[in-house]
Amino acid sequence: MVRVGLLVNPDAGLGGRLGLKGSDGQAEIARSMGAEDRSGPRMRLMLEHFINITKGESLGIEWFVSEGRMGTRWIPEALSPIVPIHSSLRETYANDTNQAIKCMIESDVDLILYAGGDGTTRDIVASLSDNGKPNLPIIGVPTGVKMHSGCFASSPKAAAEVLSAWINQDLLLSSTEVLDLDEDLYRQGKWVVRLYAEAITPASPRWMQGSKMRVEASGEEEVVEGLSDHIRDTLLDEGRMIIWGSGGTLRTIGSNLGFELNTLGIDISKGNRLIASDLNEKEIIQHLEKHTGEVTLLLSPMGGQGFLIGRGNLQLSPEVLRMVGVDNILGIVTPAKMLTLRNLRVETGDPQLDEKFSKKRYLKVLQGYRTTRILPVSVD
Description:
alpha/beta, Rossmann fold, 2 domains, 9-stranded mixed β-sheet, 5-stranded parallel β-sheet, elongated
């Protein structure tokens, strides 16, 4: 019998579409602004896919959960047997995560499956260490705004595949980095990530996302200038709206073009003018609804992980992406970052839209002045 601890951080990811750049200490604000649950529904999606892919198999799993919003509220009826070991029927805080993990350890679970972001991971790893189980395996269902750590699956469905393969003894365990971003500094436009700890997780290059790497290289100034010139010569006209994704590469290009872009948010320009900065989902939609010309969405993939959509840019919701159009997305990749990429990973949170990206198979990326290439799209 395999004993799996299951935990949901119900507040994870609430600030994503609102452009809050994280949910640590922001849950009440996010909910007051109309944020909808993200973490619980994505855990339910993971579990539904797990039930589908393991149908008919005698896996012999017991699920040890919190009763309430950190567990049973999101569990499909077909999942059994369920063993409540903790209560979360009221508002929950970081200490509830610690208490739930302690109860799971006391119940002798073999692995912990959780839904959250890097902050949730940090709390879980700290609790495992405090309770003498630092090597207990964990699998993260990605539901936060930022997920730099390597213990997350690339999507909820990928997490189901990882859990199934691990239970069937098809995957070995490995150590991976737990990284955390200082959200207070992040909201001030400063990117400060530190190595918090290491965690044990099933090893699967196919299904696990790996740790984010900050890719920097000297001698790329001319390449970035070439990228800037290409955008100036081919995209900067009054009839075209450019939506700028987040990241240092795009910020530098923007600076070369006279734009002061927000490194961590979503900005919009038309011609030689920056018309809006640090937009949330609704604001992006409002600008798209008023615009009648062409649209280009510029995105720079996340170093190491390769995510183009689905990490750190939740403002680009399925509705936004549909309005932009898949064919109007252009990746921007420097040579140093190209060395870390095998494909462009996309996880929109919408199955139909993910399928549209999957059927496209390739997306175009700009890697220099009038120099493009295509990279395969990976939708897990």
